[in-house]
Amino acid sequence: MIANDDLVSDVGGVYVHIALCRSKCIYCDFYSSVLRRDFDWHVYQDCLVKELRSRADELKGWRRITLYIGGGTPSLIPENLFAGFMNTLREVIYNASPQAEIVETTMEVNPDDVNQQRVLIWKSAGIDRISMGIQSLDDHELHTIGRRHDADGAIRAYSLLKEHFSNISIDLMFGLPGQTLESLRKTLEGFISMHPSHISAYSLMYEERTVLTRMRDSGRIKEADENLSVDMFSMINSMLRDAGYVRYEISNYSLPGFESKHNSSYWNGTPYVGIGPSAHSYDGNKTRRWNSADLDAYINGVKKSDVYSESEILSETELYEECVMTSIRKSTGIELKNIRERFGQEVAVRLIGKARNSIEKGLLEMKEDRIFLTDDGIMVSDEIIVELF
Fold it and tell me: β-strands 129-135, 334-335: how paired?
């Protein structure tokens, strides 16, 4: 068994959280604040850069780095500040790890923020991958979940981005209130005709403390039937596969060679450094860290070099469970050789035993020293993961 202290990675990710939105989507439980008119972007960016500089040692030794600007809504960053901000982030990264190459730079954008000037600024500032939240091409569905754009606006935004970016990911949501198989089919047909390099397909989740959940609980909207959601997933899987997309993770499909390098670091257990309020980090070994989920507290903490984060050391059991949870999400599944090397032969044997019930039900498959979800198993993956713990 290999001691976790001996696990060293020369790859890693840097995530920068832009925790601001024009308005809050009713289903979103990611931390963000509504942008105030008097908000000082200079101060916020200075704090993000200061935090990254203070943690530069965590990047040392990395040779292949991904940079992800997420949110919130990064496309709200003022145009006159964007290039300088990106240049400074890269400068800090390269000073920390001079031998490194930034192999992917992603930014999340909202369709209603996309215009010709901004696209050119993003491109010239080194963004090479765009992730855009479209969710649906049905205007009624978009209105129901509180999105500000409509279908025509999303298509126009995508067309403009496509003129300058060859790597674009778009988000799809299913199980929306009032969504039908036919309306989902039309959205899928529209997405496929757009031919993005990557599609993330998420089932709508009713998270605690969201407006969406309160609306369901008060009877204002109705949650999609579980069988309908399963049929929707089957349709998504079938139509995207026929269109040439490969499902490489539970919720993610890409054309060959366009898998998200950054998001793969979360599923592969490689280290990443999260910058900004509520951002999470993992050292690739045993330590997790998370920043305060409070924009003002974060800014004040960084400005004063005060405490604005917490951390924990994962136990051997927690490391094992996290390995199972993240590995099973990938289409390649859990590599038993990795389990044996990290946690021992006895643990690997016990895992196989726990998987046997789901294998017999056709929810898991075991082949070539790997255990992975079948298409039927994906929709009940949470239950399966608990069984494997």
Answer: unpaired
CB-count exposure of residue 272 (10 Å: 0-12, 13-18, 19+): buried
Both tokens assigned to 292:
């305060």
Distance CA(259)–CA(183), nearest Å, equals 27
Chain segment 149-191, per-residue pLDDT in tens: 999 999 999 999 999 999 999 999 999 999 999 999 999 999 9
Q: Tokens for 218, please give them.
A: 């008060």
Q: Strands 246-249, 168-174: parallel, antiparallel or unpaired by DSSP?
A: unpaired
Rounded Cα distance, 281 and 272, in Å = 5
**pLDDT tens per residue, range 308-322:** 889 999 999 999 998
Say if residues 228 and 175 touch (Cβ distance below 8 Å).
yes
Cα 325 to Cα 334: distance, rounded to the nearest angstrom:
9
For the chain, what is the HEC assignment? Answer: CCCHHHCCCCEEEEEEEECEECCCCCCCCCCCEECCCCCCHHHHHHHHHHHHHHCHHHHCCCCEEEEEEEECCHHHCCHHHHHHHHHHHHHHHHHHCCCCEEEEEEEEECHHHCCHHHHHHHHHCCCCEEEEEEECCCHHHHHHCCCCCCHHHHHHHHHHHHCCCCCEEEEEEECCCCCCHHHHHHHHHHHHHHCCCEEEEEECCCCCCCHHHHHHHCCCCCCCCHHHHHHHHHHHHHHHHHCCCEEEECCEEECCCCCCHHHHHHHHCCCEEEECCCCEEECCCCEEEEECCCHHHHHHHHHCCCCCEEEEECCHHHHHHHHHHHHHHECCCEEHHHHHHHHCHHHHHHHHHHHHHHHHCCCEEEECCEEEECHHHHCCHHHHHHHHC
- What does the longest C-alpha to C-alpha distance in the chain come to? 60
Nearest to 358 by CA among 341, 376, 345, 334: 376
The arrangement of strands across the sheet holding 287-291 comes to: 246-249, 252-254, 198-203, 168-174, 129-135, 101-109, 64-71, 11-18, 272-275, 280-282, 287-291, 309-313
> How many Cα neighbours within 13 Å face the side chain of 367?
7
**Cα gap 75→169, rounded to integer Å:** 15
pTM of the model: 0.91
